[in-house]
Design a protein that fits this description.
alpha/beta; Rossmann fold; five-stranded parallel sheet; 12% strand; binds cytidine-5'-diphosphate
């Protein structure tokens, strides 16, 4: 029997990270924020003075990534998010990060992964798939509060522009573009508090769990 994989995809600041962590706590499963992998590649490449647009340079960083250092607060900055989205367009970068993510998804008795391509590429057979969205304005407001809370001096308008640019780049790239899997359940959190969104997500996963258990006989 395979583990129960919960795939949580969606655009920047949609609430998917918080939802993933809370679902993981509810079911007692480990959680992987896959965005951190791309952030680590972007930040690592920049620290080495490399070019974010160079696929070969970015892939070399991805292949030698130290995956035990994803706690670095430098990965949470605005600049890291932008760098992540630029290296994430490279096919060789995505390939280098694939095995680690697939192995995480194969953990027993289950795992939660959040990102852009979990339901489509990393774990297409996941029995529970959510695609979490919200309007760009609401997402910008959430991200602006988060970043200013971390001490970054940024304006709401800058963040809204970032979010729009990132949506376009992540959704428009050729390699594993951000999109809902055909069998994902859409969760629009625009009008929801994080508690309401988590509750809605829990119900979606419970329904998926019941179907999955029936299918396992
Ligand atoms: O929450 P936010 O979207 O700002 O950041 P994130 O989830 O940490 O992702 C940062 C960037 O990494 C995204 O804009 C994507 O370009 C990329 N990413 C991806 O391509 N595939 C994933 N599974 C996760 C992130």
């Amino acid at each position: 029997m395979n583990g129960f994989v919960i795939a949580v995809d969606g655009p920047a600041a949609s609430g998917k990270g918080t939802i993933a962590v809370r679902l993981g706590a509810l079911w007692g499963y480990p959680v992987l924020d896959t965005g951190l992998l791309y952030r680590a590649v972007g930040v690592g490449l920049q620290r080495a003075g490399g070019d974010l647009d160079s696929e070969a340079a970015a892939a070399a960083v991805a292949r030698s990534l130290d995956l035990s250092h994803l706690e670095d607060p430098a990965l949470r900055t605005r600049a890291a998010g932008e760098a992540a989205s630029r290296v994430a367009v490279h096919d060789d970068v995505r390939r280098a990060l694939l095995d680690f993510q697939r192995a995480f998804a194969a953990r027993e008795p289950g795992a939660v992964l959040d990102g852009r391509d979990i339901g489509t590429v990393i774990a297409p057979a996941a029995p529970a798939k959510l695609y979490v969205t919200a309007t760009p304005e609401v997402r910008a407001d959430r991200r602006w509060k988060q970043l200013t809370g971390q001490g970054e001096a940024v304006t709401y308008d800058d963040i809204l522009a970032d979010i729009r640019r990132r949506d376009e780049r992540d959704g428009g790239r050729e390699s594993a573009p951000m999109r809902p899997a055909d069998d994902a359940v859409l969760l629009d959190t625009t009008e929801m508090t994080i508690e309401a969104a988590t509750d809605a997500a829990r119900r979606i996963v419970e329904a998926a769990r019941a179907r999955w258990e029936r299918s396992q006989g």
